[in-house]
Amino acid sequence: MIKQFLPALEAEINQMNLGQNPNELYEPIRYLMALGGKRIRPVLSLLTYSLFKNDWQNAIQPSLSIEIFHNFTLMHDDIMDKAPLRRGKATVHEKWNDNIAILSGDVMLVKAYDYLNEAKNIDLASFQYLLNRFNKTAAEVCEGQQYDMNFENLSNVSIDEYIEMIRLKTSVLVGFAMELGTLLAGESKEMATHLYQIGELVGLGFQLKDDLLDVYGDPVKFGKQVGGDILANKKTYLLIKALEQAKGDQAAELSHWLQASNSIPSDKIAAVKQIYTSLGIHTQTENAIKRYFDQAFELMGKLEISEERKLSLQNFMAGLVDREV
């Protein structure tokens, strides 16, 4: 099924009428959307829709609303993070400038609503509920981003606080993708909530995997600057765990690198990575990832849907556990 979904999604993206003039406003949107990416959120929406119905083509456009929204957040996040690369290419603010990236991102948010409005075969009350859920999710993503920025100025952030931040910043949109597919298929709010909970767990595991890949990933495959979180002193699961567990000389060395202002980037990345490895942070993070995905699969098992129907979604989820990008 996924082999059908991705080409169909890309075909729709390639023919999107996002606007033409002024070119400086719309070209960055076309550029970012054309960079590809895993399209995890619309694929999850279509996979969830397909648990209940076969005519998944009817769900393509509304499912793309969350991909457009997701890319809008990336465009703005990259400005805040001063990120040079996105999917192995220059970020929009690097290729153009900050002002263009901000305004183009604003238009993307508007276009996300246009695509959500393409939801078919649902009544007005159901669409209003869907719209309210989209709005709540969108606000939560912004809340998560603000918490993430707040953490930059805090010396102590707990694992629980970090998990709540990534739940808001990342997981709720993954959860909504599965909720969206369920609601587009005309299923009940209760069923949609169950699928949302699965997606939220998948999103937590997915973000922790992202944290892990940022340190241990192959830069060619990962498509982003490996070690970027270390250079930015970003409060990730790995850093918080290391700060909790480092003692004596290790704690002093970690503190040194966190406070160093003129260090050689490659030296800092190598040193902090070595501290993580010696503390077993890599394994601890992998175990946390597995816990969240195990919980998601457990909830999948409780769905009263044929195993054949669930197979494609389960296989896709399993692929997210072992991903290298």
User: With helices defined by DSSP (H or I, 4 residues minimum), what is the helix count?
Assistant: 16
**C-alpha geometry:** globular
Assign the CATH superfamily.
Farnesyl Diphosphate Synthase
Query: Strand order across the biggest sheet?
Result: 1-2
Please give the share of residues in helix. Answer: over 70%
Give the uncertain stretches in residue-range form: none
CATH topology-level name: Farnesyl Diphosphate Synthase
CATH architecture group name: Orthogonal Bundle
Outline the structure in words.
- The chain is mainly α and 325 residues long.
- It has one domain: Farnesyl Diphosphate Synthase.
- It is 74% helix and 1% strand.
- It contains 16 helices and two strands.
- It has helices at 2-14, 23-34, 40-49, 60-81, 92-95, 98-116, 124-151, 159-184, 189-216, 219-222, 228-231, 237-245, 248-259, 265-279, 281-301, 307-321, and strands at 85-86, 89-90.
- It has a two-stranded antiparallel sheet.
- Strand 1 (85-86) and strand 2 form a beta hairpin.
- The longest helix is centred in the middle third of the chain and has 28 residues, at 124-151.
- It is globular.
- The mean pLDDT is 94.
Helices and strands, with pairings:
Layout lengths: L1 H13 L8 H12 L5 H10 L10 H22 L3 E2 L2 E2 L1 H4 L2 H19 L7 H28 L7 H26 L4 H28 L2 H4 L5 H4 L5 H9 L2 H12 L5 H15 L1 H21 L5 H15 L4
Antiparallel strand pairs: 1-2
Helix pairs in contact: 1-3, 2-6, 3-4, 3-8, 4-6, 4-8, 7-8, 8-9, 9-15, 15-16
Describe this protein with a few key phrases.
325 residues; single chain; mainly alpha
